[in-house]
Hints:
0% strand
Amino acid sequence: MDINQVALAFLEENGSDLPRANHSLKVYGYAKAIAAGETLGSQEQQVLEAAALLHDIGIHEALRRYGHCQGPAQEELGPPIVRRILTQLGWPEKQREQVAFLVGHHHSYQTVGGGVPLQILFEADLLVNAEEGSLSSESLISLEKQVIRTSVGRELFSLLFGTAIKEKKTI
């Protein structure tokens, strides 16, 4: 299970969509940083890293099929693509299904059963979405309360958005 192969497969699948590639690479980086503060086994870490890279893999298919890429469409269409990619890379079925589960629930903040890896994916994706979006300080506070649970996630959120929140700015 080579994460570098997953990264290359992800880039091949997304073609020249650099903004989405950069988004996923940032989520991957934050997921690794947050995971460093948690206790994950090596397989759990690999599953998380693959899910972070592939979390938005259903966007292009959602755009083709539905004309939009809202969260539920990504969660529906991403897992089959994840399974295809990871099967081609020789990942064991158990890990393929774990990655597919995370990708299939990465916008569903009330999901039960994803454990620490899903929580980390939520937080990493939120950090990047908040940085890439235009959010008011009120929205940032609300999202932080709803989503951020890990100590490293809280620390990163504070470092990235604490000033904007204190000064009631939109980022």
